């Protein structure tokens, strides 16, 4: 007899992951497909949407190949907010523009702020315009690729792209829509037509649904391609970080999810809507919930970049060297702004800085400094969340970076916060599977994914990290002018020559 399972697939920045999960929450099988993003110009990060569906098909077929499992529902999630524009027949018109790591829309942000008013955008949309805002990137395409934009009729993100391929339904989840600033009104939980019509008058914005609601069923064509049974329900899905939060049960008021991945994401669930000019106020993944969220533009991307520079040693070896380096990385301090920075500084022209370097420093010191830099960035976000009215009562960690223990320990040491480490940290694909399971079974995430351990800060390091944090904050202020000048120089140098070929260093791998 075949085991009844749900299929969860997540399309991430550096890989796609799929899981088959049974009714008890046990992972029957999992699989991963690595991929690369394209960085054709400084500040541009794109991806071909065909890869998303091809990898879904490949994952589905591999997971179902043994023939011992029956899929009863499908869950999807993906990085976001992204901007994939297609014509009316769902044919992509250009590569998808990715989330806040793509910083091309600076001019559009300034124009839209002048046009609609910064305070009014924050009040209506929940978030200030930043590199994270999908609506500003839609405006960039309209401004810079007008002939292409005249043919654009539909807007997709990775999760909704999988849904349309699987079911034929054009739909987007409420949470993803709330990151399409300034196209969405968080108060009415609907598209805001007056602004949408000015930014994209011919774009037919998708109908909205909640992430766990059934979007449609697998068509005969999709079933044949992906090896799935036809007629199986498919949920609407959502952005990966919010699916990660679902996967570890970080949905209660006061919870803060830390997602350790290529980037670092923070999602705090609040009792009532909050806005902050330095963070993202969004609707949650579950009906009736609200979040105050933030994100570092790079975290695992830096550790992957360093690993490649070091000749690709195993991550356990790098972690051993970093642990031997000790707190403070023997006098090194890094700013992790290697792709600009999202929250809380919202500075697309920020750049990475490594201060205190001498010829005596080692690979372990540099790797330790990178792990500590993400911890310092998390602390900055936590302080900003609480200053904005958040009330953080519990921190839950998830993602590939939770493996090995050192990274989560450093973040706890730097922030002074306990972190709950659940039994299953595979992340967004597991959260998507759970939402799909709820359409068929009576399940709870507490039963599916109980707590495994608590990471506790080492109080003897508090004074050292307090001092380092003060220097971290000062280093950004003191180096900002130079970083911005170098960012401008990078743009000028590129304009003088051909586009840079993407080798994607810094996007592969997440340190455990």
UniProtKB/TrEMBL annotation:
<dbReference type="InterPro" id="IPR018483">
    <property type="entry name" value="Carb_kinase_FGGY_CS"/>
</dbReference>
<keyword id="KW-0859">Xylose metabolism</keyword>
<dbReference type="GO" id="GO:0042732">
    <property type="term" value="P:D-xylose metabolic process"/>
</dbReference>
<dbReference type="InterPro" id="IPR018485">
    <property type="entry name" value="FGGY_C"/>
</dbReference>
<comment type="similarity">
    <text>Belongs to the FGGY kinase family.</text>
</comment>
<keyword id="KW-0119">Carbohydrate metabolism</keyword>
<keyword id="KW-0808">Transferase</keyword>
<keyword id="KW-0418">Kinase</keyword>
<dbReference type="InterPro" id="IPR043129">
    <property type="entry name" value="ATPase_NBD"/>
</dbReference>
<dbReference type="Pfam" id="PF02782">
    <property type="entry name" value="FGGY_C"/>
</dbReference>
<feature type="domain" description="Carbohydrate kinase FGGY N-terminal">
    <location>
        <begin position="6"/>
        <end position="244"/>
    </location>
</feature>
<dbReference type="GO" id="GO:0016301">
    <property type="term" value="F:kinase activity"/>
</dbReference>
<dbReference type="InterPro" id="IPR000577">
    <property type="entry name" value="Carb_kinase_FGGY"/>
</dbReference>
<protein>
    <submittedName>
        <fullName>Xylulokinase</fullName>
    </submittedName>
</protein>
<dbReference type="GO" id="GO:0016773">
    <property type="term" value="F:phosphotransferase activity, alcohol group as acceptor"/>
</dbReference>
<dbReference type="InterPro" id="IPR050406">
    <property type="entry name" value="FGGY_Carb_Kinase"/>
</dbReference>
<feature type="domain" description="Carbohydrate kinase FGGY C-terminal">
    <location>
        <begin position="257"/>
        <end position="438"/>
    </location>
</feature>
<dbReference type="InterPro" id="IPR018484">
    <property type="entry name" value="FGGY_N"/>
</dbReference>
<dbReference type="Pfam" id="PF00370">
    <property type="entry name" value="FGGY_N"/>
</dbReference>
């Amino acid at each position: 007899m075949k085991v009844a399972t749900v299929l969860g697939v997540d399309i991430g920045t550096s890989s796609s992951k799929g899981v088959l999960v049974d009714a008890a929450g046990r992972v029957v099988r999992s699989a991963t497909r690595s991929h690369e993003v394209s960085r054709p110009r400084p500040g541009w990060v794109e991806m071909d949407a065909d890869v998303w569906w091809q990898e879904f098909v490949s994952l589905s077929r591999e997971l179902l190949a043994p023939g011992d499992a029956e899929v009863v529902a499908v869950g999807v999630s993906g990085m976001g907010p992204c901007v994939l524009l297609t014509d009316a027949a769902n044919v992509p018109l250009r590569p998808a523009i990715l989330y806040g790591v793509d910083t091309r829309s600076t001019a559009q942000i300034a124009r839209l702020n002048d046009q609609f008013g910064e305070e009014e955008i924050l009040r209506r949309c929940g978030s200030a315009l930043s590199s994270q805002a999908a609506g500003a990137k839609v405006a960039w395409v309209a401004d810079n690729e007008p002939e292409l934009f005249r043919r654009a009729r539909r807007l997709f993100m990775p999760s909704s792209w999988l849904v349309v391929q699987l079911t034929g339904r054009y739909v987007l989840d409420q949470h993803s829509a709330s990151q399409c600033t300034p196209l969405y009104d968080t108060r009415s939980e609907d598209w805001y037509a007056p602004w949408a019509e000015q930014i994209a008058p011919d774009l037919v914005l998708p109908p909205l649904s909640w992430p766990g609601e059934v979007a449609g069923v697998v068509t005969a064509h999709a079933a044949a391609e992906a090896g799935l049974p036809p007629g199986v329900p498919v949920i609407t899905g959502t952005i990966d970080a919010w699916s990660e939060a679902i996967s570890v049960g970080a949905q209660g008021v006061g919870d803060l999810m830390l997602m350790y991945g290529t980037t670092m994401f923070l999602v705090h669930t609040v009792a009532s809507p909050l806005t902050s000019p330095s963070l993202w106020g969004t609707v949650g993944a579950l009906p009736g919930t609200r979040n105050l969220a933030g994100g570092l533009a790079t975290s695992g991307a830096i550790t992957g970049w360093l690993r490649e520079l070091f000749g690709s040693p195993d991550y356990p070896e790098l972690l051993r060297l970093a642990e031997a380096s000790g707190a403070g990385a023997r006098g090194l301090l890094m700013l992790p702004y290697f792709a600009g920075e999202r929250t809380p500084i919202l500075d697309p022209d920020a750049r990475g800085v490594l201060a205190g370097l001498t010829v005596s420093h080692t690979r372990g010191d540099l790797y330790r400094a990178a792990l500590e830099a993400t911890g310092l960035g998390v602390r900055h976000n936590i302080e900003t969340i609480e200053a904005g009215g958040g009330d953080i009562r519990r921190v839950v960690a998830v993602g590939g970076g939770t493996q090995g223990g050192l990274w989560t320990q450093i973040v706890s040491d730097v922030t002074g916060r306990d972190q709950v480490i659940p039994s299953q940290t595979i992340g967004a694909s597991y959260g998507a599977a759970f939402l799909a399971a709820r359409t068929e079974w009576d399940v709870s995430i507490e039963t599916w994914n109980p707590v495994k351990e608590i990471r506790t800060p080492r109080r003897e390091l508090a004074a050292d990290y307090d001092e380092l944090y003060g220097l971290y904050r000062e280093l950004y202020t003191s180096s900002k002018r130079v970083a911005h000048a170098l960012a401008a120089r990078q743009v000028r140098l590129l304009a003088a020559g051909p586009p840079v070929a993407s080798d994607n260093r810094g996007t592969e791998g997440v340190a455990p």
